[in-house]
Amino acid sequence: MRTIIVFSSKLGTTEKCAHKVASLVGGEVKIVNLKHASKIDISDYDNVIIGSGFYAGSIPGSVTAFIENCQPALLQRNFGVFMCCLAEGEEAQAQLESAFPEDILQKAKAAVAFGGEANYEKMNFLFRFILKKATKRKESFSTLDESKIEEFAKAFRS
Fold it and tell me: Within its chain, how far is the Cα of 70 from the centroid?
């Protein structure tokens, strides 16, 4: 089984999760950062995994554009989506559902919010200031749920 993982990551958490999923899926896996790719042909892949961060209430435009451009082909193969966000539980699920088109979520083999990380050292002053005020946390923190990453990868294991 050939798998392609496409993602967009602002501060590195989604990229970290993409590599973790790749290591757990097994088989032939290609990882593509949407920041550095123009057109992606998914026709040679059995599985397509889309990863995204969630910033200011939405996913990056590069992820939205990829889904729009590949939607007919996506719906013809095994695919899944994961999202990194700081919310947990029902709030994270609600953010996932608001971020991706309904038909994508319904047809996905797996659609999971993994949690996220707030690494203040990687943020610019304004982003760090806003996040500290919103979360009321002064130190970097993580809400990543490794078990969710493992369960997601299991759905695509070759």
Answer: 16
Q: At what angle do helices 13-25 and 146-154 cross, to 10 degrees?
A: 40
pLDDT in tens, 65-77: 999 999 999 999 9
**Is the separation of the CB atoms in 20 and 63 below 8 Å?**
no
State how far the Cα of 77 lies from the Cα of 41, in Å rounded to an integer. Answer: 13
- What is the value of pTM for the model shown? 0.92
Q: What domains are there in the chain, each with its CATH number? A: 2-117+148-154 (3.40.50.360)
Digit-coded pLDDT (tens) for 34-66: 999 878 999 999 999 999 999 888 999 999 999
Say how far apart CA 70 and CA 120 lie, in whole Å. 34
CA–CA distance, 84 with 112 (Å, rounded to integer): 9
Residue 120 per-residue DSSP state:
G
φ, ψ dihedrals at 84, nearest 5°: -105, 125
